[in-house]
């Protein structure tokens, strides 16, 4: 645990008692702060009470006596309207902070030489975070991974100058971290997302920009126009920028071309690693992720041979292009983390003959933008709340069936794929939707798919490793 010592002998209110909220409370208490917590959910309050946290209705507090409001990232700060605790804090001129901000403050004071890589973007940030962590571990260096992936950031091992911290940061977390200043900031890409929480795409992009603008080195994907514009802007302001691409050959930066990662300087390039045959890094989107992780690894002093070895041994990320089995010629892929159309596009681009399980709680724009991939889809199996809308989009263009549930979708898809005469038909769960209509989160959705695939008769357990 990283004890938050900056609030010793001070009183803070904390709203949101999920996993990160409880970890934050524990870190504050360990550092000598008085924490008064609350959550609207009775179950969360019961868990917090069992852990010994002081609970009080925050409406009852004299907010002028508080030193901060610590807000869980899932609680609205601005849109669709500020949470009631936010209004109380602002009226009393109380700072509103999140756990990433507390981490950044503690590191700055206690261990400023500890490498801190913060990774954000619309898509690819989790894979890039996990991949960079794996590269650093491959080099034999101590490394901790957390934030929006895996462990809450304040539950990581305490600071040491040689220990690197690789932290995935959502836009919600950055919004609550006004002074975060990583050694290296990575922006993978940008497309419209979470507009219900940020109001406009411009506001969403500005939050991402702020993270990398404050970084010692900014690693920025330039394969989309908004990110490329941010790279140009912060470079013009004098910031050190390393551009990355899976589409363009760069004169300066790190790019993927022909399945190879290259580092270019002044038009001269050196070979870093070959991605051929690495199933966990299949597809152009993963080439960009590999370029981003490689750029950060080079900035941290890793050599190309170590990076190549780490890329080759990367096991992949659960729920993101995760091969979960093979039955004969049929490959089963869990891409449950694809919660928007842009993310699903990366999966559809990676295969040639697809039995596509799609749907859930839809996001703005639906799947209309994926029409360029429709010729690859043998059949779509619609599940969840989005079925009506997606049926209208696919009607007359893609063969589809309204399966409604994951169980029925996999049953139908596995039979149809087995009868498909393609060399490698793929049953792909890539929902392009949030999971909240039928599942608690994308992990639960992906776990369900994986369990259903595992129960299929004749499944080759070694299929995942073979790909």
Automatic annotation (TrEMBL):
<keyword id="KW-0573">Peptidoglycan synthesis</keyword>
<comment type="function">
    <text>Cell wall formation. Catalyzes the addition of glutamate to the nucleotide precursor UDP-N-acetylmuramoyl-L-alanine (UMA).</text>
</comment>
<dbReference type="InterPro" id="IPR004101">
    <property type="entry name" value="Mur_ligase_C"/>
</dbReference>
<comment type="pathway">
    <text>Cell wall biogenesis; peptidoglycan biosynthesis.</text>
</comment>
<dbReference type="Pfam" id="PF02875">
    <property type="entry name" value="Mur_ligase_C"/>
</dbReference>
<keyword id="KW-0547">Nucleotide-binding</keyword>
<keyword id="KW-0961">Cell wall biogenesis/degradation</keyword>
<dbReference type="InterPro" id="IPR018109">
    <property type="entry name" value="Folylpolyglutamate_synth_CS"/>
</dbReference>
<feature type="domain" description="Mur ligase central">
    <location>
        <begin position="119"/>
        <end position="297"/>
    </location>
</feature>
<dbReference type="Pfam" id="PF08245">
    <property type="entry name" value="Mur_ligase_M"/>
</dbReference>
<dbReference type="GO" id="GO:0008360">
    <property type="term" value="P:regulation of cell shape"/>
</dbReference>
<keyword id="KW-0133">Cell shape</keyword>
<dbReference type="InterPro" id="IPR013221">
    <property type="entry name" value="Mur_ligase_cen"/>
</dbReference>
<keyword id="KW-0963">Cytoplasm</keyword>
<keyword id="KW-0436">Ligase</keyword>
<keyword id="KW-0131">Cell cycle</keyword>
<dbReference type="GO" id="GO:0008764">
    <property type="term" value="F:UDP-N-acetylmuramoylalanine-D-glutamate ligase activity"/>
</dbReference>
<feature type="binding site">
    <location>
        <begin position="121"/>
        <end position="127"/>
    </location>
    <ligand>
        <name>ATP</name>
    </ligand>
</feature>
<dbReference type="GO" id="GO:0071555">
    <property type="term" value="P:cell wall organization"/>
</dbReference>
<dbReference type="GO" id="GO:0051301">
    <property type="term" value="P:cell division"/>
</dbReference>
<feature type="domain" description="Mur ligase C-terminal">
    <location>
        <begin position="319"/>
        <end position="432"/>
    </location>
</feature>
<dbReference type="GO" id="GO:0005524">
    <property type="term" value="F:ATP binding"/>
</dbReference>
<keyword id="KW-0132">Cell division</keyword>
<dbReference type="InterPro" id="IPR036615">
    <property type="entry name" value="Mur_ligase_C_dom_sf"/>
</dbReference>
<comment type="similarity">
    <text>Belongs to the MurCDEF family.</text>
</comment>
<dbReference type="GO" id="GO:0005737">
    <property type="term" value="C:cytoplasm"/>
</dbReference>
<dbReference type="InterPro" id="IPR036565">
    <property type="entry name" value="Mur-like_cat_sf"/>
</dbReference>
<dbReference type="InterPro" id="IPR005762">
    <property type="entry name" value="MurD"/>
</dbReference>
<dbReference type="GO" id="GO:0004326">
    <property type="term" value="F:tetrahydrofolylpolyglutamate synthase activity"/>
</dbReference>
<protein>
    <recommendedName>
        <fullName>UDP-N-acetylmuramoylalanine--D-glutamate ligase</fullName>
        <ecNumber>6.3.2.9</ecNumber>
    </recommendedName>
</protein>
<dbReference type="GO" id="GO:0009252">
    <property type="term" value="P:peptidoglycan biosynthetic process"/>
</dbReference>
<keyword id="KW-0067">ATP-binding</keyword>
């Amino acid at each position: 645990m990283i004890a938050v010592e900056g609030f010793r002998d001070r009183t803070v209110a904390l709203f949101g008692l999920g996993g990160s909220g409880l970890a934050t409370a524990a870190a504050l208490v360990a550092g000598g702060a008085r924490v008064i917590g609350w959550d609207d959910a009775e179950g969360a309050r019961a868990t917090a009470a069992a852990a010994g946290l002081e609970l009080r209705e925050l409406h009852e507090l004299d907010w002028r006596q508080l030193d901060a409001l610590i807000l869980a990232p899932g609680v609205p700060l601005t849109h669709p309207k500020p949470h009631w605790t936010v209004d109380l804090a602002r009226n009393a001129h109380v700072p509103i902070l999140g756990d990433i901000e507390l981490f950044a403050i503690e590191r700055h004071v206690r261990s400023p030489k500890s490498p801190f890589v913060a990774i954000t973007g619309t898509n690819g940030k989790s894979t890039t975070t996990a991949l960079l962590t794996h590269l650093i571990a491959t080099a034999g260096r101590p490394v901790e991974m957390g934030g929006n992936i895996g462990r809450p950031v304040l539950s990581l091992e305490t600071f040491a100058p040689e220990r690197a911290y690789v932290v995935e940061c959502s836009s919600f977390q950055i919004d609550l971290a006004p002074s975060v200043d990583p050694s290296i900031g990575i922006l993978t890409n940008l497309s419209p997302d979470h507009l219900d929480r940020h109001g406009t795409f411009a506001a969403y992009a500005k939050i991402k920009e702020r993270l990398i603008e404050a970084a010692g080195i900014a690693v920025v994907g330039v394969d989309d126009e908004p990110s490329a514009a941010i790279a140009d802007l912060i470079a013009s302001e004098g910031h050190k920028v390393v551009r990355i691409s899976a589409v363009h050959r760069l004169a300066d930066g790190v790019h993927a071309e022909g399945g190879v990662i290259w580092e270019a300087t002044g038009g001269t390039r050196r070979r870093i690693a070959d991605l051929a045959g690495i199933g966990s890094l299949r597809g152009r989107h993963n080439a960009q992720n590999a370029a981003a992780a490689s750029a950060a690894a080079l900035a941290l002093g890793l050599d190309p041979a170590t990076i190549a070895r780490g890329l080759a041994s990367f096991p992949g990320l659960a729920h993101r292009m995760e091969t979960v089995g093979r039955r004969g010629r049929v490959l089963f892929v869990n891409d449950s983390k694809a919660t928007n159309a842009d993310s699903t596009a990366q999966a559809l681009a990676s295969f040639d003959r697809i039995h596509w399980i799609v749907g859930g709680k839809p996001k703005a724009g639906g799947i209309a933008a994926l029409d360029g991939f429709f010729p690859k889809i043998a059949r779509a199996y619609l599940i969840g709340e989005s079925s009506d809308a997606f049926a209208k989009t696919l009607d007359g263009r893609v063969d589809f069936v309204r399966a409604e549930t994951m169980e029925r979708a996999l049953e139908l898809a596995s039979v149809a794929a087995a009868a498909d005469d393609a060399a490698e038909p793929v049953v792909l769960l890539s929902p392009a939707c949030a999971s909240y209509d039928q599942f608690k989160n994308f992990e639960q959705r992906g776990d369900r798919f994986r369990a259903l695939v595992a129960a299929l008769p004749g499944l080759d357990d070694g299929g995942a490793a073979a790909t």
